[in-house]
Amino acid sequence: MNESVSNKKRRTIAAIYVITFMAAFALSSGLFSNAMPRIIEGYELTFDQASLFSIFQSAGMILATALTVLVVDRLDKNKALGLMFLLMGGFLVCIGMAPPFVLLLVALFLLGTVSGVLDNACAAYISDLFGDERAKYISILHAFFGLGSVLGPVFIGTLFKMGFEWNTAYTTFGLVVVFLALAYFVTMAVIKRPEPAVSGVDEAGVRVKIPYKKIVTSPQMLVLCGMAIFSAATQVFNTWLPTYLNNKDALLYPVSFCSTIMACYSVGMIISRVLNGAILRALSPRKYIITMTFLGALVLGAGLAIDQKLLWPVVSFLLGLLIGAIYTVQIIMACSYFPQFSATAISYAGLASSIGGMLFNALAGQLAQRVSFLSAMCIPVAGMVGTFLLMGLTRRVGSHTEAAGE
C-alpha cells in the first residue's frame, strides 16, 4: 500500500473519479434523446421501430442488473468501475460509426449493459466508501449526474449548429471516455485503491454470504421495486419529448430548441439533487416521493394541456426540479435497507426500473404510431400518479427503517 497517500486522500480521489464517471454516463444518455430525430430521419424509421432503441437499451440494463446482483458485491468495485467505463467509451465509439440499423441496436444493447453496471456500481461504491454518510455523498454523486445531463444536450446541440451529424457526438465523447478510463487505471496504480468504510467481509476477513432471498422478499424492497417500475414511466419524457415536439412542428421546435428544453430539465435536476440531502433531513424519503410525484404530475399534465412553445422550458425545468432526485432517493433507500450489500439492493431496484423503462418506452412507440403522440406523452403523468398512489397506500411498510436511515 502506498503510505505516502493517506486513505482519506485516496478515498477523495476515487470519489472524484466516480463522480466524473457518473457525469459522463449522464452526458452519454443525454445525447440520445436529442439525436433521435436525426436518427429516425437518417435511418427512415417509423416510431414503433424507433422505440426499439430504448427497448434494447433497457434490455441491456436488465442484463446489467443481473450481472450486478451476481458479481459486483463479490468483486473489487474499484477495478470493476474502471473496466465498465472503458467499455462504455468503446461502445460509444462503435455507435458513432453509424452502423446498419441491426448493429446499431446491438451496440445500444451493449452500451445499456455496461452503462447499467456502471450506474449501479457508482452508487454502491460511494455507499461503501462513505458508510453512514452515504445519503450526503450519493446526493452529490447524482447532482453531477444532473450536470452531465445538462452538458449532453448542450454538447450535441452545439455540434448540430456547427454542421456536424449526430454520430460525431458519439465518436468524440467516446474517445474522451476511453482517455479518462485509462487515466483512472494509472492513478489507482500509483496511489493504490482506498479502504472503504463498509465492505462485504466480516471481522475475520471472510466474505459474508449475500442474502439474496431476504433482500428480494423484504416488504420494503418489494414496495421500492414497485415504485421504481412506476417512476420509470418518466423516462418517456426524457427519451421522446424532443421527437414529439419536432415531429409536431419542425420549424417551431427545431432540434436545437428541443436540446435547450432538455437542458432546462437537467438544470432543475441538478438543483433538486443538490438540495436533496437537506430536504431529506426534514422529510422522510417516502413523503418526499409522494409530494414530488403529485406536483410533477400536475406540472407535466398542465404543460401537455397548454402546449405553448415558451412554456416548455419552464415545464421542463420544474419537472426536473420536482422529480429529478427521485432516483437518488430510491438509491438511498435501497442502501439504507441493506448497507452491507448495497450493490445487490440497488440492483434489484434498478432491475425494476429497467423493466418499467422497457415496457413504457415500448408502449410509447406503439401509442405514437397507432393512436397519437400526445397519448404517448401522457405515460409519464400516469406513472407519477401510480407512484404517488403506491407510496401513499403503503406508508406503514418500512416506515421505521426509513426513519432510522435519515
Helix count from the secondary structure assignment: 17
Q: Approximately how much beta-strand content do the residues carry?
A: under 5%
N→C terminal distance:
35 Å
Overall tally of structural domains: 1
Please tally the β strands and state the result.
0
> Which consecutive residue ranges, at least 5 long each, have pLDDT under 50?
400-406
**CATH fold description:** Growth Hormone, Chain: A
Structural class: mainly alpha
Roughly what is the average pLDDT, rounded to an integer? Answer: 85
The CATH class assignment is Mainly Alpha
Approximate shape:
globular
Major sheet details: none
Helix content: over 70%
CATH architecture: Up-down Bundle
Task: Please compute the radius of gyration using only Cα atoms.
Answer: 20 Å
User: In sequence order, what are the helices and strands, one letter per element?
Assistant: HHHHHHHHHHHHHHHHH
CATH fourth-tier homologous superfamily: MFS general substrate transporter like domains
Family: Belongs to the major facilitator superfamily.
Protein name: MFS transporter
Subcellular location: Cell membrane
Membrane topology: Multi-pass membrane protein
